[in-house]
Amino acid sequence: MVYFPALEAEHLKEILAGPYGLKVIATAILLLLLFAFRAVSLSRITTLGMQPEHTRRWLAQLRNISLLIMALGLLIIWGDELRGLAISVVAFLAALVLALKELITCVTGSALRVGSHSFRIGDRIEIDGIRGEVFDHNLITTTLLEIGPGPKSHQRTGRLIVLPNSTFLTKPVFNESFTNDFVLHIFHFPLDRKADWKKAEAALLKAADAACSDYIEEARKHFAKLEREKGLDASNADPKVTVQFPSSDDLELLVRLAVPAHRRGRIEQAILRDVAEQLDKFESLSQKDAS
Known about the structure:
3-stranded antiparallel beta sheet, 8 helices
C-alpha cells in the first residue's frame, strides 16, 4: 500500500482551517487530557496496595468518571451541531410517525387484542355494529365472516369483512362465544298486549325443553366447570322465559337458554316454528269451541 503524507497533511490543514477546525482541536485536547488523567489515576490506584475488591471499585468509578467527563466535554464542544442533529432526527421521526400512524395504531390494536385475550379464531364477536365469526387475524387486520342481516339473525350472509385492528383501540368488543362450547342465547318473542301470553310462555318452555333435551346435562356440567376454573357464577342452563313490556301497547317474552355455540340460530328457529304450530293449534281449538 502506498501512502501520500503530503496529501494527508493538506487534508488535515483543510479541516483545521474550516469552520470546525477549533472544535477538532478542542476535541483532541480533551481526549489527550482525559487520557493523561486516566493514566495517572490508574497508576495511583494500582500503587496504593488496596484490597482487590476496593481496587476493582475504584477502577469502575474511574471508568465511569472518564466517560462522564468525555460526554460532557463533547456535548459542550459540539453542542450546536448535536442540537441541529437532534432537531433533524426528531423531525424525521415525527414525519415517520405521521406517515405510519394507521399502521402503528393497527399494530397497537393487535397487541391489545393479544394482551386482553378478547377473542380467538372461531369466536363470534360484535364491534361497532358489525357481527361475525372470526375467520383470521394478523398484526394489521382481523377478518370476519359476517352474521346477519341485523342483530337478531344468526346466519352467515356470505360476505367477508376485513377490520383494521386500530378499531379495537376505540370500540368495545362483544364476544358472544367467551364461554366456549356452550353459550347463553337470548331471543325475543313479541305478542299483542291482548294475547294470551301464558299460553305462549308455556309453548315456549315446552319447545325449548324439547330442543335442549339432547345436550342439557352436558351444558350444566360445562357451566359448572366454568364456575370452578374461572370464578364465574354458575349460570342456570335450563330454559327460562321472562315477560317484558317494551311499550304500553306491546308485550314481549324474552327466552334465555343454553345452546351449543354454533347452533344457536338453528335451535332458535326450531323453537319458534314449534311454538307457531302450537299457537295455531290453540287458535284452531278456540275457534271450534266458540262455534
